[in-house]
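[Q] Does anyone have a clean structure-token version of this?
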Amino acid sequence: MPVALITGASSGLGRALTRALAARGWSVIADARGAAALADAVAGQGGVTAIAGDVTDPAHRERLGAEAARIGRLDLLVNNASTLGISPLPPLLGYDTGALELVMRTNLIAPLALIQLLAAPLATARGTIINISSDAAIEPYRGWGGYGASKAALDQLTAVLAAEAPELRCYAFDPGDMRTPMHQAAFPGEDISDRPEPETVVPALLRLVEERPPSGRYLAVALRAAAVTS
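[A] Here you go.
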């Protein structure tokens, strides 16, 4: 039975992917900050172990690593947990640098720390790392400088890791806009019901997991289009 560790699994894309993998017979270690929300997200999902905590906390990351060691293998790590930062989104000239440090710890430092912690079992399984990116990593949207900078750095980290660890598949995955709590926080008071549900993005993610194309940066919309035309 393949094993995945998914951070930020209590809502949005993390929740949708956790459920999809569990339905396919995977064993999933599901992480999120809020214990109640995480328990609700995995309720009734066989093969899912919920471990609540903050990925920026080294002790929590050690708990995740210990669970992977207990199971005895790890095939997939999905660094999905992210923080938007300040809402409403501020311009960079007014961005509190203390808040920006938290964004970087959550969106960049914690994913790298988990990769380092879990490198051995992932290498043994010739596994897959998926770091959830954003179009804000490459597009200069007003107000998105803090979050976008963290995701741009995560993209570069992913690319370098792919060059340094060719035994792994390393993907930066851009899901596009989704109807999630974090996206709503980026647009406070606005109606985001026109954005697609996270479940619509999962098939594109599963293509990476199941087909294992070369390491690189992939867009959900391109993966969906390729599936339609192939």
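[Q] Thanks! Anything notable?
[A] The chain has a mean pLDDT of 94.
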